[in-house]
Design goal:
The structure is a homotrimer of 128-residue chains.
Chain A: E1 2-8, E2 13-16, H1 18-27, E3 34-38, E4 44-50, H2 55-67, H3 80-89, E5 92-98, E6 101-102, E7 108-114, E8 120-127
Antiparallel strand pairs in A: 1-8, 2-7, 3-5, 3-8, 4-7, 5-6
Protein backbone atom coordinates (compact mmCIF):
# COMPACT_ATOMS: atom_id res chain seq x y z
CA UNK A 1 0.00 0.00 0.00
CA UNK A 2 1.53 3.30 -1.12
CA UNK A 3 0.40 6.75 -0.03
CA UNK A 4 1.69 10.05 -1.34
CA UNK A 5 2.60 13.17 0.63
CA UNK A 6 3.25 16.66 -0.70
CA UNK A 7 6.01 18.80 0.81
CA UNK A 8 6.50 22.48 0.05
CA UNK A 9 10.17 23.22 0.48
CA UNK A 10 12.35 26.30 1.03
CA UNK A 11 15.43 27.10 -1.12
CA UNK A 12 17.49 24.56 0.76
CA UNK A 13 16.72 22.91 4.06
CA UNK A 14 15.36 19.99 6.05
CA UNK A 15 11.56 19.79 6.50
CA UNK A 16 10.28 17.43 9.19
CA UNK A 17 7.60 14.99 7.96
CA UNK A 18 7.42 12.60 10.94
CA UNK A 19 3.82 13.40 11.92
CA UNK A 20 2.51 13.04 8.35
CA UNK A 21 4.23 9.66 7.96
CA UNK A 22 3.01 8.53 11.41
CA UNK A 23 -0.55 9.45 10.43
CA UNK A 24 -0.35 7.31 7.27
CA UNK A 25 0.91 4.39 9.36
CA UNK A 26 -1.94 4.91 11.85
CA UNK A 27 -4.61 4.87 9.15
CA UNK A 28 -3.13 1.91 7.29
CA UNK A 29 -4.99 -1.45 7.37
CA UNK A 30 -3.61 -4.98 7.36
CA UNK A 31 -0.11 -6.12 8.24
CA UNK A 32 2.28 -3.38 9.40
CA UNK A 33 5.90 -4.28 10.05
CA UNK A 34 7.99 -1.70 8.25
CA UNK A 35 7.41 1.77 6.80
CA UNK A 36 9.45 2.94 3.84
CA UNK A 37 9.66 6.66 2.99
CA UNK A 38 10.82 7.25 -0.59
CA UNK A 39 11.70 10.51 -2.36
CA UNK A 40 11.09 10.38 -6.15
CA UNK A 41 13.43 13.33 -6.85
CA UNK A 42 17.14 13.58 -7.67
CA UNK A 43 18.07 16.84 -5.93
CA UNK A 44 16.37 15.97 -2.65
CA UNK A 45 16.62 13.12 -0.17
CA UNK A 46 15.34 11.88 3.16
CA UNK A 47 17.12 11.23 6.45
CA UNK A 48 16.45 10.43 10.10
CA UNK A 49 18.07 12.63 12.71
CA UNK A 50 17.43 14.62 15.88
CA UNK A 51 14.22 16.64 16.08
CA UNK A 52 14.54 17.94 19.65
CA UNK A 53 16.90 20.82 18.81
CA UNK A 54 16.15 22.41 15.40
CA UNK A 55 19.80 23.54 15.22
CA UNK A 56 20.90 19.97 14.48
CA UNK A 57 19.49 19.87 10.96
CA UNK A 58 20.76 23.40 10.29
CA UNK A 59 24.23 22.22 11.33
CA UNK A 60 23.87 19.22 9.02
CA UNK A 61 23.12 21.47 6.07
CA UNK A 62 26.05 23.73 7.00
CA UNK A 63 28.33 20.69 7.07
CA UNK A 64 27.06 19.25 3.76
CA UNK A 65 27.67 22.60 2.06
CA UNK A 66 31.28 22.48 3.25
CA UNK A 67 31.73 18.80 2.40
CA UNK A 68 30.45 18.91 -1.19
CA UNK A 69 32.90 21.13 -3.09
CA UNK A 70 32.34 23.67 -5.84
CA UNK A 71 34.06 22.12 -8.82
CA UNK A 72 34.07 22.38 -12.62
CA UNK A 73 30.96 20.21 -12.95
CA UNK A 74 29.68 19.36 -16.44
CA UNK A 75 25.92 19.04 -15.80
CA UNK A 76 24.30 21.96 -17.60
CA UNK A 77 21.66 22.81 -15.01
CA UNK A 78 24.32 23.93 -12.53
CA UNK A 79 22.90 21.95 -9.60
CA UNK A 80 25.37 19.06 -9.46
CA UNK A 81 26.15 19.71 -5.80
CA UNK A 82 22.46 19.11 -5.02
CA UNK A 83 22.60 15.75 -6.85
CA UNK A 84 25.69 14.75 -4.85
CA UNK A 85 24.06 15.69 -1.54
CA UNK A 86 20.94 13.72 -2.52
CA UNK A 87 22.95 10.51 -3.01
CA UNK A 88 24.91 11.14 0.19
CA UNK A 89 21.79 11.23 2.40
CA UNK A 90 19.90 8.76 0.21
CA UNK A 91 16.50 8.48 -1.46
CA UNK A 92 14.73 6.44 1.22
CA UNK A 93 14.59 5.54 4.89
CA UNK A 94 12.77 2.63 6.54
CA UNK A 95 11.40 2.51 10.08
CA UNK A 96 10.12 -0.55 12.00
CA UNK A 97 6.46 -0.51 13.06
CA UNK A 98 5.44 -1.92 16.45
CA UNK A 99 1.83 -2.08 17.67
CA UNK A 100 0.75 -0.10 14.65
CA UNK A 101 3.07 2.88 15.24
CA UNK A 102 6.47 4.00 13.97
CA UNK A 103 9.16 2.64 16.29
CA UNK A 104 11.54 5.62 16.13
CA UNK A 105 14.10 6.39 18.82
CA UNK A 106 13.36 9.08 21.41
CA UNK A 107 15.16 11.88 19.55
CA UNK A 108 14.55 10.73 15.97
CA UNK A 109 12.50 12.53 13.36
CA UNK A 110 12.12 11.93 9.61
CA UNK A 111 13.33 14.83 7.48
CA UNK A 112 12.75 15.66 3.83
CA UNK A 113 16.07 17.11 2.63
CA UNK A 114 15.70 19.82 0.00
CA UNK A 115 18.89 20.69 -1.84
CA UNK A 116 17.45 22.58 -4.84
CA UNK A 117 14.20 24.35 -3.96
CA UNK A 118 11.92 26.00 -3.40
CA UNK A 119 9.75 23.29 -4.92
CA UNK A 120 6.55 21.36 -4.45
CA UNK A 121 7.87 17.86 -3.76
CA UNK A 122 6.38 14.39 -3.41
CA UNK A 123 7.10 11.62 -0.91
CA UNK A 124 5.91 8.00 -1.24
CA UNK A 125 5.10 6.07 1.91
CA UNK A 126 4.91 2.26 1.67
CA UNK A 127 3.78 -0.01 4.52
CA UNK A 128 4.92 -3.63 4.50
CA UNK B 1 12.14 -14.03 -4.15
CA UNK B 2 15.72 -13.08 -4.96
CA UNK B 3 17.19 -12.74 -8.44
CA UNK B 4 20.80 -12.08 -9.31
CA UNK B 5 22.20 -9.68 -11.91
CA UNK B 6 25.75 -9.50 -13.25
CA UNK B 7 27.35 -6.12 -13.96
CA UNK B 8 30.63 -5.67 -15.80
CA UNK B 9 32.20 -2.48 -14.52
CA UNK B 10 34.87 -0.02 -15.68
CA UNK B 11 37.78 1.10 -13.46
CA UNK B 12 35.54 3.48 -11.59
CA UNK B 13 32.12 4.71 -12.55
CA UNK B 14 28.34 4.49 -12.31
CA UNK B 15 26.60 1.84 -14.44
CA UNK B 16 22.84 2.19 -14.90
CA UNK B 17 20.89 -0.99 -14.08
CA UNK B 18 17.33 0.39 -14.07
CA UNK B 19 16.07 -1.62 -17.03
CA UNK B 20 17.46 -4.92 -15.74
CA UNK B 21 15.86 -4.34 -12.33
CA UNK B 22 12.57 -3.30 -13.95
CA UNK B 23 12.56 -6.49 -16.01
CA UNK B 24 12.97 -8.62 -12.88
CA UNK B 25 10.06 -6.79 -11.26
CA UNK B 26 7.95 -7.32 -14.40
CA UNK B 27 8.60 -11.08 -14.47
CA UNK B 28 8.08 -11.56 -10.73
CA UNK B 29 4.97 -13.43 -9.51
CA UNK B 30 2.90 -12.91 -6.38
CA UNK B 31 2.77 -9.85 -4.15
CA UNK B 32 4.90 -6.90 -5.29
CA UNK B 33 5.12 -3.86 -3.04
CA UNK B 34 8.81 -3.00 -2.75
CA UNK B 35 11.96 -3.84 -4.69
CA UNK B 36 15.29 -3.96 -2.89
CA UNK B 37 18.55 -3.79 -4.86
CA UNK B 38 21.52 -5.06 -2.84
CA UNK B 39 25.24 -5.01 -3.68
CA UNK B 40 27.20 -7.89 -2.04
CA UNK B 41 30.56 -6.08 -2.41
CA UNK B 42 32.54 -3.74 -0.14
CA UNK B 43 34.17 -1.44 -2.70
CA UNK B 44 30.98 -0.81 -4.69
CA UNK B 45 27.54 0.51 -3.86
CA UNK B 46 24.20 1.44 -5.37
CA UNK B 47 22.40 4.77 -5.61
CA UNK B 48 19.41 6.43 -7.26
CA UNK B 49 20.02 9.63 -9.17
CA UNK B 50 19.33 11.44 -12.46
CA UNK B 51 19.55 9.41 -15.65
CA UNK B 52 18.47 12.11 -18.14
CA UNK B 53 21.88 13.81 -18.40
CA UNK B 54 24.81 11.35 -18.16
CA UNK B 55 26.99 14.18 -16.86
CA UNK B 56 25.25 14.01 -13.48
CA UNK B 57 26.78 10.69 -12.41
CA UNK B 58 30.17 11.78 -13.78
CA UNK B 59 29.91 14.90 -11.62
CA UNK B 60 29.00 12.74 -8.63
CA UNK B 61 32.12 10.64 -9.07
CA UNK B 62 34.22 13.80 -9.47
CA UNK B 63 32.77 15.13 -6.22
CA UNK B 64 33.27 11.88 -4.29
CA UNK B 65 36.91 11.78 -5.37
CA UNK B 66 37.38 15.26 -3.91
CA UNK B 67 35.38 14.53 -0.76
CA UNK B 68 37.15 11.31 0.27
CA UNK B 69 40.75 12.33 1.05
CA UNK B 70 44.02 10.55 0.38
CA UNK B 71 45.28 9.76 3.87
CA UNK B 72 47.73 7.42 5.60
CA UNK B 73 45.27 4.50 5.53
CA UNK B 74 46.31 1.20 7.15
CA UNK B 75 44.38 -1.31 4.99
CA UNK B 76 47.02 -3.22 3.04
CA UNK B 77 45.16 -3.49 -0.26
CA UNK B 78 45.40 0.26 -0.81
CA UNK B 79 41.73 0.72 -1.72
CA UNK B 80 40.42 2.25 1.52
CA UNK B 81 38.97 5.23 -0.33
CA UNK B 82 36.78 2.81 -2.31
CA UNK B 83 35.50 1.28 0.95
CA UNK B 84 34.65 4.74 2.30
CA UNK B 85 32.78 5.72 -0.87
CA UNK B 86 30.87 2.42 -0.74
CA UNK B 87 29.55 3.16 2.75
CA UNK B 88 28.77 6.77 1.80
CA UNK B 89 26.45 5.79 -1.07
CA UNK B 90 25.30 2.60 0.69
CA UNK B 91 24.92 -1.08 -0.17
CA UNK B 92 21.22 -1.07 -1.07
CA UNK B 93 18.33 1.00 -2.38
CA UNK B 94 14.62 0.21 -2.23
CA UNK B 95 11.94 1.37 -4.65
CA UNK B 96 8.14 1.14 -4.24
CA UNK B 97 6.25 -0.97 -6.78
CA UNK B 98 2.85 0.17 -8.07
CA UNK B 99 0.76 -1.86 -10.54
CA UNK B 100 3.61 -4.27 -10.96
CA UNK B 101 6.21 -1.69 -12.00
CA UNK B 102 8.97 0.28 -10.28
CA UNK B 103 7.55 3.58 -9.05
CA UNK B 104 10.61 5.75 -9.70
CA UNK B 105 10.46 9.51 -10.17
CA UNK B 106 10.62 10.98 -13.69
CA UNK B 107 14.37 11.60 -13.65
CA UNK B 108 15.46 8.73 -11.43
CA UNK B 109 17.60 5.78 -12.46
CA UNK B 110 19.27 3.04 -10.40
CA UNK B 111 23.07 3.06 -10.63
CA UNK B 112 25.63 0.45 -9.68
CA UNK B 113 28.56 2.44 -8.25
CA UNK B 114 31.96 0.91 -8.98
CA UNK B 115 34.80 2.34 -6.91
CA UNK B 116 37.45 -0.36 -7.47
CA UNK B 117 37.06 -2.01 -10.86
CA UNK B 118 37.13 -3.17 -13.50
CA UNK B 119 35.31 -6.19 -12.11
CA UNK B 120 32.51 -8.62 -12.77
CA UNK B 121 30.04 -7.71 -10.03
CA UNK B 122 26.79 -9.14 -8.68
CA UNK B 123 23.56 -7.43 -7.66
CA UNK B 124 20.74 -9.11 -5.70
CA UNK B 125 17.17 -8.01 -6.41
CA UNK B 126 14.51 -8.90 -3.82
CA UNK B 127 10.78 -8.31 -4.33
CA UNK B 128 8.55 -7.98 -1.25
CA UNK C 1 8.70 -9.47 14.02
CA UNK C 2 11.14 -7.11 15.73
CA UNK C 3 13.97 -8.12 18.04
CA UNK C 4 16.23 -5.81 19.98
CA UNK C 5 20.01 -6.02 20.43
CA UNK C 6 22.17 -4.12 22.90
CA UNK C 7 25.59 -2.84 21.84
CA UNK C 8 28.18 -1.43 24.26
CA UNK C 9 30.25 1.04 22.31
CA UNK C 10 33.65 2.73 22.67
CA UNK C 11 34.16 6.51 22.39
CA UNK C 12 33.99 6.35 18.62
CA UNK C 13 34.25 3.31 16.42
CA UNK C 14 32.62 0.54 14.40
CA UNK C 15 31.38 -2.52 16.30
CA UNK C 16 30.59 -5.62 14.25
CA UNK C 17 27.13 -7.09 14.92
CA UNK C 18 26.87 -9.60 12.05
CA UNK C 19 26.75 -12.73 14.20
CA UNK C 20 24.07 -11.33 16.54
CA UNK C 21 21.90 -10.32 13.58
CA UNK C 22 22.47 -13.71 11.88
CA UNK C 23 21.40 -15.49 15.07
CA UNK C 24 18.13 -13.51 15.18
CA UNK C 25 17.48 -14.46 11.56
CA UNK C 26 18.22 -18.11 12.32
CA UNK C 27 15.78 -18.23 15.25
CA UNK C 28 13.02 -16.35 13.44
CA UNK C 29 9.87 -18.23 12.41
CA UNK C 30 7.64 -17.77 9.38
CA UNK C 31 8.48 -16.01 6.13
CA UNK C 32 12.03 -14.65 5.84
CA UNK C 33 12.96 -12.62 2.79
CA UNK C 34 14.69 -9.49 4.05
CA UNK C 35 16.35 -8.43 7.31
CA UNK C 36 16.35 -4.77 8.30
CA UNK C 37 18.78 -3.50 10.94
CA UNK C 38 17.69 -0.15 12.41
CA UNK C 39 19.54 2.16 14.81
CA UNK C 40 17.17 4.26 16.99
CA UNK C 41 19.87 6.87 17.80
CA UNK C 42 20.88 10.15 16.15
CA UNK C 43 24.65 10.13 16.78
CA UNK C 44 25.18 6.55 15.61
CA UNK C 45 24.44 4.63 12.43
CA UNK C 46 24.84 1.28 10.74
CA UNK C 47 26.75 0.25 7.63
CA UNK C 48 27.89 -2.81 5.71
CA UNK C 49 31.58 -3.07 4.82
CA UNK C 50 34.59 -5.39 4.87
CA UNK C 51 35.13 -7.54 7.96
CA UNK C 52 38.18 -9.53 6.79
CA UNK C 53 40.74 -6.81 7.62
CA UNK C 54 39.84 -4.82 10.77
CA UNK C 55 41.87 -1.89 9.40
CA UNK C 56 39.13 -1.14 6.87
CA UNK C 57 36.64 0.21 9.41
CA UNK C 58 39.41 2.10 11.20
CA UNK C 59 40.28 3.73 7.87
CA UNK C 60 36.61 4.58 7.35
CA UNK C 61 36.46 6.37 10.69
CA UNK C 62 39.71 8.20 9.90
CA UNK C 63 38.23 9.35 6.58
CA UNK C 64 34.89 10.44 8.09
CA UNK C 65 36.74 12.54 10.67
CA UNK C 66 38.55 14.32 7.85
CA UNK C 67 35.44 14.67 5.68
CA UNK C 68 33.13 16.18 8.31
CA UNK C 69 34.65 19.57 9.19
CA UNK C 70 34.89 21.38 12.51
CA UNK C 71 32.69 24.42 11.99
CA UNK C 72 30.83 27.02 14.03
CA UNK C 73 27.90 24.67 14.70
CA UNK C 74 24.90 25.98 16.67
CA UNK C 75 23.71 22.78 18.39
CA UNK C 76 24.40 23.28 22.11
CA UNK C 77 25.52 19.75 22.92
CA UNK C 78 28.65 20.14 20.79
CA UNK C 79 28.25 16.85 18.94
CA UNK C 80 26.98 18.11 15.58
CA UNK C 81 29.73 16.29 13.70
CA UNK C 82 28.41 13.01 15.13
CA UNK C 83 24.91 13.86 13.85
CA UNK C 84 26.31 14.58 10.37
CA UNK C 85 28.25 11.31 10.27
CA UNK C 86 25.12 9.43 11.40
CA UNK C 87 23.12 10.73 8.43
CA UNK C 88 26.03 10.08 6.05
CA UNK C 89 26.20 6.35 6.87
CA UNK C 90 22.45 6.10 7.53
CA UNK C 91 20.16 4.72 10.24
CA UNK C 92 19.43 1.34 8.67
CA UNK C 93 20.68 -1.39 6.35
CA UNK C 94 18.73 -4.24 4.79
CA UNK C 95 20.09 -7.64 3.75
CA UNK C 96 18.35 -10.31 1.63
CA UNK C 97 17.67 -13.68 3.31
CA UNK C 98 18.07 -16.92 1.35
CA UNK C 99 17.36 -20.38 2.79
CA UNK C 100 16.87 -18.82 6.20
CA UNK C 101 20.27 -17.11 6.38
CA UNK C 102 21.62 -13.61 5.70
CA UNK C 103 22.77 -13.43 2.07
CA UNK C 104 25.80 -11.17 2.61
CA UNK C 105 28.74 -11.01 0.22
CA UNK C 106 31.95 -12.89 1.06
CA UNK C 107 33.70 -9.91 2.67
CA UNK C 108 30.68 -8.12 4.10
CA UNK C 109 29.89 -7.56 7.76
CA UNK C 110 27.28 -5.40 9.48
CA UNK C 111 28.75 -2.65 11.64
CA UNK C 112 27.20 -0.49 14.33
CA UNK C 113 28.81 2.94 13.86
CA UNK C 114 29.32 4.85 17.11
CA UNK C 115 30.10 8.54 16.67
CA UNK C 116 29.41 9.81 20.21
CA UNK C 117 30.09 7.13 22.81
CA UNK C 118 30.86 5.35 24.95
CA UNK C 119 27.21 4.40 25.29
CA UNK C 120 24.86 1.48 25.76
CA UNK C 121 23.03 1.44 22.41
CA UNK C 122 20.07 -0.41 20.94
CA UNK C 123 19.57 -1.98 17.52
CA UNK C 124 16.21 -3.14 16.13
CA UNK C 125 16.18 -6.16 13.81
CA UNK C 126 13.06 -6.70 11.67
CA UNK C 127 12.48 -9.77 9.50
CA UNK C 128 10.11 -9.49 6.54
Amino acid sequence: MLKELTVNTPHEGFVEITSQVAEIVRQSRGEKNLCQVFVPHTTAGVTINENADPDVVKDMLLALNHIVPKLAYQHGEGNSRAHVKASMVGSSVSVPIINGTLHLGTWQGIYFCEFDGPRKRKVYVTIL
